[in-house]
Specification:
Blueprint lengths: L3 E6 L5 E5 L2 H15 L3 E7 L2 H18 L7 E5 L9
Antiparallel strand pairs: 1-2, 1-3, 3-4
């Protein structure tokens, strides 16, 4: 989606990658969190009012306009809790 990106970073805030869709970023984030047991962040980056509108309509535009210089529009923390085998 134009003017919207999804960035995945590890527990030390090192960027793993930037992706064009939430689904791609979420897949990478889940894999990274499962592989090391530490939280991973998935940041939604919105670069314009038009990007906010495409992401979430009028409500997202209002949120964007509250602070258009915010570095992250939304942040998700992904953590996998491995519980082992279940019988």
């Amino acid at each position: 989606m134009k003017d919207v990106e999804y960035e995945v970073s590890n527990h030390a805030h090192n960027r793993i990658g930037t992706y064009p869709t939430f689904a791609e970023a979420a897949t990478v984030a889940l894999g990274a969190a499962a592989s090391n047991g530490r939280a991973v962040t998935l940041d939604v980056l919105v670069w314009s009012k038009a990007g906010a509108r495409r992401l979430g309509g009028d409500d997202a535009v209002a949120q964007y306009l509250e602070d258009p210089d915010a570095s992250v529009f939304e942040r998700y923390e992904i953590k996998v809790n491995y519980v082992g085998r279940v019988r």
